[in-house]
Amino acid sequence: xxxxxxxxxxxxxxxxxxxxxxxxxxxxxxxxxxxxxxxxxxxxxxxxxxxxxxxxxxxxxxxxxxxxxxxxxxxxxxxxxxxxxxxxxxxxxxxxxxxxxxxxxxxxxxxxxxxxxxxxxxxxxxxxxxxxxxxxxxxxxxxxxxxxxxxxxxxxxxxxxxxxxx
Length: 166
Hints:
Blueprint: H1 3-26, H2 29-45, H3 53-78, H4 83-92, H5 95-112, H6 115-126, H7 131-138, H8 142-165
Helix pairs in contact: 1-2, 1-3, 2-3, 5-8, 6-8, 7-8
């Protein structure tokens, strides 16, 4: 069996278990899918190392677990407010305050982000497209879409906070 077949077979056989493991660790289905995809890419890049399908499966599970832990740690470090607290805070605001906040954020998106970041935010947040679909539309990789989306969100947060503090 060729190395490429071993990697593909390992991930095809264990994909559901890998997604389940990653989702338990990250607490998020999108992050779990990212971890599994990144693990597949890592194994594929070093496919010559795996002599058997069982070896590839073990390496795949380990890679998914480690990547999921990394994602969960990253999310914990960068979580500003717990989702439950954010939802409560939103419910306590009036419609006028909420509308004003949305307007401010939209202005930041429209005026402060690059055209590519603007397009990614609109496609992901407004239209609800998946990363692969956005990547195809913008002639990018899904990984690059995730990176740009993360940078755009961070920039919006920073600008919004700075304006709010002023």
